[in-house]
Amino acid sequence: MEQSQNYNPKAPPPNYLAFAIITTILCCLPAGIVSIVYASEVNRKWMSQDYEGAYRASQNAKTWAIVSAVSFAGIFILIFIFYIFVGLTAFSFQH
Known about the structure:
This protein is mainly α and 95 residues long. The chain is built from three helices and no strands.
């Protein structure tokens, strides 16, 4: 197995477990769960000397936590726009 220059076997990659848990609780549950699964794989793969797998799991955990946060923000913005539209529509019918 060829070792890439991007992997430093002395320093494990971040597992983003806290970020994954926070986005699962506060944001989008399905994407957050995927992030937690990947975050939990990072340390296990690192300890089994699968450095490439640990870095991949780390990046996937980060990506899915971001997907969870962004999807929550998108849904929040759509709901906000919907309420503004409904409010303006109700206001225009009163006058």
